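Posting this for the archive.
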Amino acid sequence: MGCTPTKLSRKDGLFFDDKDAISVDKLEDEDGPPQVRHFTFTNITCKSFEVAWEAPADVKIDRYQVRIFPPEGVRSKSLINSLGTTSHTFERLKTGTRYTVGVVAIDANGKRSTCASASESTLPQAPTSLFFPPRDISASTFRATWKSSPGARDCYEISITPTHGVTGDTFVSDLHHMQYVFTGLVPGIKYYVTVVSVANGRKSDALEGAVITNPGHVYDLSFPHVTHNEMQIVWKPPLGEIECYTLTLSSDHPDEDPIEISKIKQTSYRFNGLVTGRDYTCEIYSHAHGKISLRKTFQQCTLPSEVGNLSVTNISTHSAMVTWDSAPGDSDDYDLFLNPKELAGESPSPRGVTGNMYTFKGLSPGTKYTVGIVTNSKDKISQRVVSAFLTEPSHCGEITFPKDELKSTQIGVHWISAEGHWDTYTILVMKDGGAGGTWSQGDITRNRYTFTDLTPGAEYLFSITTNSEGRQSISKSARCSTLPCPAGVISYPPDGVTSASIKFNWSPSGGGVDHYKIRVTGEGFNHEDTVKYDKTDYLIEDLSPGTTYEIFVSVISYGVESEPSTGSCTTGPARVSDLETQNLSKNKIRVSWSPPEGGVDSYDVTISPDQGVDCELRPARIEETNYTFDRLIPGTLYAIHVTPIARGIAGPISEVLGYTTPGDILNVHMPADEITKDSVKVIWRVEGNSKHVLASLVQEGAWEEPTLISAIVTRDTERVFEGLQDNTRYVIKLQAIGAKDLAPAGGENSKGLETTVVHKTSTPGAENSTPNPVDPSFALGDAPAEAAVSSTASLEVEDQPSAEADTGHKSNGNEPRLDKTDSNENVDPHELEIIAASENLNIQPVVSDESVNHPNLPST
């Protein structure tokens, strides 16, 4: 079964390629015999095989030419040129190698057939050194290893017997490594292992070996019976063959030797004489065919012993200490249990307690508890040991005394119920620190009690005790006093209420008093104060005018306040505003004002000074906001006071200054014996309190305008006019002038009515034409008509003059009071001369006697 060669060469008439094909050149022997047929290979070994074929039919074959390929490594002939038989044995070949054999038939004529070929492989050599590493042998697995032999091979095949019960592979082919692990085997079974090499589909001789799997370990190990000193162990046998078992029992305690029990045929065993609560390690393994299984190890602990002498001490309302003696044998810790759990506080079931004591906290007072304890050792617990105890009852909570139950002879006592369980309460009552007696009230089943028939204003001490199953708590105490008798009726003394203050009185309390509590309220005002027990009046100030205040006076005794005595009072009105005066004449002053806020009923209006005034100085209560005083003294400074009245209460007094204009010049006359041809003496009296008089001398000419001869302000009541011309008509003018006394009210330089006197001089021996000075028509003449000033006049100053003032002056009440001074009385009346020129005789020059220029006069 040749193929076209890739590279041809001729050798002895044979053509072959360099691989495995053999062919003959058909161009030379086209009429050669047919090919041989039916190749067979027998007696195949690692290094040889025999090849045979059939000669072509109906043709006489002389000989055969045989060739094996590849020839490399063939230590015998690889080319036989003349073979007379139809078979040939090739020897000394390479193991596990595939060879191609080509045969050419040659007939008697020497003609050659085409080359016929067939292929076959030598057997591979069997592997060697089959080995089973002990560390890789288990109850269900083992590992097989081997070594390769010389020669070529493609892979290995391995198999085991028996196969019964095996869950893994029992035959594996196409192995390229020299090892394999069988799994899923049956423990304690002897297995036979076969390994062959495979090359070109040919298998080598088998390499065989045997291995025994380890016996299986026991399973489902249990301890159905464990006590303080005994321990029974039970197990199930493993699969496979088992001969016997070995058990060991040991602990961590150095003074205890391990226990070993061997060659056990049964599947259970009981150990006794063990230590209570001790943890033991149990190890068990099986035997088969001289091998042992895996060691199965289990931990088991004997039951721990119970504690001794369980007791409960240091019992309080919320805690209790539990103590005990350590359990015999081994133990790790203790678990405690407390019932009822819902009242067991912070930790009702503490676990892992070490030592010999534990304190339960957060318990409920007055409650009966059961405490239990077990000993722990590894995973075992002992029997429970129990004991019972009762917590102390708790005292009651805060004690209060409701105001609605507090009276002069009664006290209602309330308290917060005691925590936890309680049966009844007992109250011990002590009056006035024990001086007033002591008694108790028991079997109280509620958290309140009312005591009656008590003494007013007395102090009581209430001590409450909680009772629970024959036990008593510590007492809880509080003090309270019965209400004292209230204060008496509140009254207001005369003149005790003003616009900014209220003074009030009350009658003393009929019972014990520590002090009085005062409270005053009204329109955003709230005032509280206390006064000593011996005081029964109080003054409160800085109040708002026209405001109603509520007044409360209560008695305090032992810290308890009585029912207050109450009163109501309204402060007086506020001060009037816009207070001002207006002088209407020499005898009248008008005063006006604006009413204060808060309402007013009437006003009191007074005026001073009152000497010589023929008028009503304190008129009846005025309801209007103005009043006119008449029949006053001319030229006088007055102080007027206005007081508002509301609800019979006088408000603050307001003051304003006013003045009357200077009075008239009265009783003017010229004594006859004082009249000469060049002089005349004039005498007068000034009405009221006017002190200054302006005396002017005016000369009237026949053809000329009137001329002001002289003008002087004097305090005198007479004046001699000298240097008169003969046969000349003179007009003497007298007018009262307001002095500095009236300055605080603005009345300085105000003027009274002007009085004129006419005097005509005559030549000696001639009849004097001057009117009789005592004649009223002469004494009180009118002012002359206005005339232009035609000459100058000399003005002499003898006394303190004043500036001109408006008779309609208004005072606002804020001006200073009149300050009367005579600081200029020592000034020489002739020291200052002023030359004045006036265009109008009614504008009178005025000179100040303070040696300063007056604004209404020309400069000196």
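The longest strand covers residues 98-107. The two ends are 176 Å apart (CA to CA).
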